[in-house]
Amino acid sequence: LQAALVGFRQKRRSQFDRVIALSPCDFRFSTVAAVRSFFSYNAVMGATDDGNFLQTSLKIAGVVGLYWFVSISMVFLNSHLLSGVSLQAPMFVTWYQCVVAVAACAVFGHFRTSHPLLESFPKFEYKLEIAKQILPLSIVFVGMIAFNNLCLKYVGVAFYNVGRSLTTVFNVILTFVMLNVMTSKKALGACAIIVAGFFLGVDQEGAEGGISYIGVLFGVSASLCVALNAIYIKKVLPLVDSDTWRLMAYNNVNASFLFLPVILLLGEAPEIATSDVVYSGNFWFMMTVAGIFGIAIGLVTMLQIQVTSPLTHNISGTAKACAQTILALQFTHTSKSAMWWLSNIMVLGGSMGYTVVRRAEMKAQHAAQQEAEKPAAGP
Predict the structure, then answer these.
(1) How far apart, in Å, do the first and last CA atoms of the chain sit?
(2) How far does Cα 95 stand from its chain's mean position?
(3) Contact of 197 with 346, CB cutoff 8 Å
(4) CB 122, CB 287: distance < 8 Å
C-alpha cells in the first residue's frame, strides 16, 4: 500500500477527471473484463519480468479485495443501521456519519507526516469564505447522501443497484443542459439499455410484491444528485487547489450543519430522545465504523485507480455490484425470476458499455489533440 501511494498526489487530479468522464455513477463492471484487466500487467504497470509481474499482481489483488470489502461492508452496515434497528431516524444516522468523516479528516490531516498512508490527507482547515462558495455543492451533496440512504432503507441491498442506476442517464442530460456538451449515439444507446433495465427491474420487483415506490423515487433522486454532484465538483475544485480530500472535508463540515434543520423538520428529534438504542454502545460502535468506512471508500477508490486504471476501477465496481446483489439474496434466502436478473444484467451491462464507449472516445480525442499539437514539418 505504501508503494502504491507513491506519486498519488501528483496524479490524483487527472485520474479524478478521467473517472468522472468515464462513469459519473457508482462504478460497475463485468467479472470477465475484471480478470482480463487484472492480468494485463504490461498495459497497467509496464513491467516485463516474472518477479515484478507476481509482485504487482498480488498488490493489485490486495487493493481490489480491499475496495470490495470496504464498499460491500459499508452498504450492508448502512442497510442494518437504517432498517435493522428500532431507531427510525435516517437523517440522524447520515448526519453522524458526516461528523465522523470530519473528525477523521482532522485526525488524519494532523498525523499526515507520521505515515506514508496518510500523506494524501491535507492539513485540516475550514475557511468561511471558501465554505460559502462550496455551499451549493454541499446542498447537492446532502441531497445525494440523504436520498442514497433513504433508497437503501426502503428498497434493500438486492434492488439497490437497479434503484440507483440512472446516474449515467442524468449525467448525460445535465451535461447537455448545463454544459452544452453533446453525447455520442453509441453512448446514448448504452443509456437506453440502462433505462430499459431500470424499468424492467421496477416492473419485476413490483410483480414479486417487494417493491417500494417511495424507495424507487428516492433512488431516482439520489441518481440525479450524484450527477449534479459530479458536475459541481469540477466547478469548485479550483477553490481547494484541486484537492479532493480538502473538498470532502469542507463538504462534510457544511453537511453537518445542513442536516440539523432537516432532522428537526422531519421530526426525528423526539424519536432520538425516546429511543433505547441510543444508549447502546454497540449501536454507536456500528455508527462510527460506518462513518469511517465513508472515508475509507474514498481512499481505497483512489488507491484502486492508482494501481490499475480508471477503466479497470469501473470494471471492478460492476463486478462488486454483482457480488453484492448475490450476497444480499443469499442472506435473505430469496430467489428471483429470470426477468429480474435480466434487468440487473441490462443495468450493469449498459453502465459498462457506456464506460467502454466513453473511454474509446476520450482516447481518440487525446490522440487527435496530440496530433494537432505536433509542430508542422519543415519544407
Answers:
(1) 52
(2) 18
(3) yes
(4) no
Angle, vertex CA 120, rays to CA 108 and CA 248, nearest 5: 70
Residue 278, Cβ density class (10 Å: 0-12 exposed, 13-18 middle, ≥19 buried): middle
Rounded-to-integer distance, Cα 250 and Cα 138, Å: 8
CA dist., res. 204 & res. 171, Å (int): 26
pLDDT at position 56 = 80
Residue 231's pLDDT is what?
Answer: 86
> Stretch 193-214: mean pLDDT, rounded?
91
Taking each helix axis from N to C terminus, what angle separates 167-179 and 213-236, rounded to the nearest 10 degrees? 40
Predicted local confidence at residue 110, as pLDDT: 85
d(CA 255, CA 262): 11
Q: Are 254 and 131 in contact (CB under 8 A)?
A: yes
What gap in Å lies between CA 329 and CA 76, rounded to an integer? 12
Q: Which three three-digit cell numbers place residue 105?
A: 479528516
| Residue from 160, 144, 351, 347 nearest 231 by CA | 144
Spatial separation of the C-alpha atoms in residues 193 and 350, rounded to whole Å: 5
Average pLDDT, the chain: 82
